[in-house]
Specification:
The chain has 409 residues and is an alpha+beta fold. The protein has 2 domains: 11-146, no CATH class; 200-408, 2-Layer Sandwich (Heat Shock Protein 90). The chain has helices spanning 11-44, 47-73, 84-100, 108-118, 122-142, 148-230, 234-258, 271-279, 299-320, 362-372, 401-408; strands spanning 287-291, 325-331, 335-342, 376-381, 387-394. It has a 5-stranded mixed β-sheet, with helices on one face. The longest helix is centred in the middle third of the chain and has 83 residues, at 148-230.
């Protein structure tokens, strides 16, 4: 039985790939800017100044590399963050470097993004603010403490980046929440579909059992009871023989049902012959008529026609006390019809009892079969005037695919 399955969780994988690409860009940018800034500083300052500044720059690079590697390995873990001490040391070393050598100020962007990865809440704001403040002081110092734009520029850029980063994080959190809600809804839908599939399968099996095994056993029981009443008359032997033949056919139908095989002759033999074979299991004198141009029908329609015929003729045998019965198969341009008639005692369709252990399931099962294929079933009967069960299946307008799928499970 097919079931509806939830889609694999691809959002986390896609998000991780995008975050990984951003991290690579940030880290590569940091490396390029550090090299460029170091070259610029060495070319503009004396060797005595270069030594300590370059050593501090190397320390910043080492701290950055260690922090980035640890953060990548522990990505997504909120409680365990072993890189935080390294991040604190990195921010302190970076602040000293950019104040001493403002040439390295352009690397502040990479440091800012790394601090936001390492810290959450107020700690992230403090670390980002410290990075922006150190950059502002370094640039303001480089201007000779005269250019106010050098002081305010990094602070404004830090505030702007903080707002943008917070907005991105909120949107990402909302997206994750929505995805989790959708995933949960899909799982609930899949569970409901599985339950519906199980219920549909049970309904289908109950119809199959009713239309084959139950009807055959009931007819066999009537024959054996009749033989018991007339024993040892010759007619009793005929009734026993008929009951034996019917039980053998029931056994074959049961095996076919267990192995999910088609009814004999349904798939390959002509449909009128299959209907005749099914009807005469219960009423040997039933007549079969075919009207219209015979043509190939969908297998699900053929199957439904056979089962409706079996159930309707079995009801004639069990309940109608009819002298004559007939089955008419009609081929119309856009539909196929089935009429099962008997001249028995009839009944009031509105007064049919609901299904129970004593019976009453046949009409409901027939109606379900027909309606699931987009057809219609009508019952015309009244006490003393016989019964007509008429089914019509459309051929130009296919039935609901969902119903066909359920019926074929």
């Amino acid at each position: 039985m097919p079931t509806a399955h939830p889609r694999p969780d691809t959002s986390n994988g896609t998000s991780n790939r995008i975050d990984g690409r951003i991290d690579v860009v940030v880290h590569v940018g940091f490396a390029v800017l550090m090299v460029a800034s170091a070259v610029r500083y060495v070319m503009r300052h004396s060797p005595a100044d270069n030594l300590w500044t370059v050593a501090l720059a190397v320390a910043v690079c080492a701290l950055y590399a260690v922090t980035a590697v640890l953060a990548h390995r522990q990505q997504g873990q909120r409680k365990q963050r072993p890189w935080i001490p390294w991040m604190v040391a990195l921010v302190a070393a970076w602040a000293a470097l950019v104040v001493v050598a403002p040439s390295f100020a352009w690397c502040s962007f990479a440091i800012f993004f790394l601090t936001r990865t390492a810290f959450r809440g107020w700690a992230g704001y403090v670390a980002g603010g410290a990075t922006a403040a150190a950059t502002a002081v370094g640039l303001f110092r480089m201007s000779g403490w005269t250019d106010i734009a050098m002081l305010l520029g990094p602070l404004a850029a830090g505030a702007l980046l903080t707002l943008i980063y917070d907005k991105i994080e909120r949107d990402a959190a909302l997206q994750r929440t929505l995805f989790d809600d959708v995933t949960q809804a899909q799982q609930q839908l899949a569970a409901k579909q599985r339950e519906a599939g199980i219920a549909t399968e049970r309904e289908r099996v109950s119809r199959e059992i009713h239309d084959t095994v139950t009807q055959g056993l009931a007819s066999s029981l009537l024959l054996l009871e009749a033989a018991q009443r007339s024993w040892p008359a010759e007619t009793a032997q005929d009734d026993v023989r008929k009951a034996t033949d019917l039980l053998r056919r029931n056994l074959a139908d049961t095996r076919s049902l267990v192995h999910e095989l088609s009814a004999p002759g349904l798939e390959s033999g002509p449909l009128p012959e299959a209907l005749e074979h099914a009807a005469r299991q219960y009423v040997e004198t039933v007549s079969i008529r075919v009207t219209g141009d015979v043509r190939t029908l969908p297998s699900e329609v053929r199957h439904a026609l056979l089962r409706v015929t079996q159930s309707a003729v079995a009801n004639i045998k069990l309940h109608s006390q009819a002298d004559h019965a007939s089955v008419t198969l009609g081929y119309l341009p856009d539909a196929v019809t089935l009429d099962v008639f008997d001249d028995g005692r009839g009944f009031d369709p509105a007064a049919v009892h609901p299904p129970s252990a004593e019976g009453g399931y046949g009409l409901r099962a027939m109606r379900q079969r027909v309606e699931q294929l987009g057809g219609e079933l009508s019952v015309e009967s009244s006490p003393g005037e016989g019964t007509i069960i008429a089914a019509q299946f459309p051929l130009t307008h296919p039935a609901d695919p969902a119903n066909l799928l359920k019926e074929s499970l």
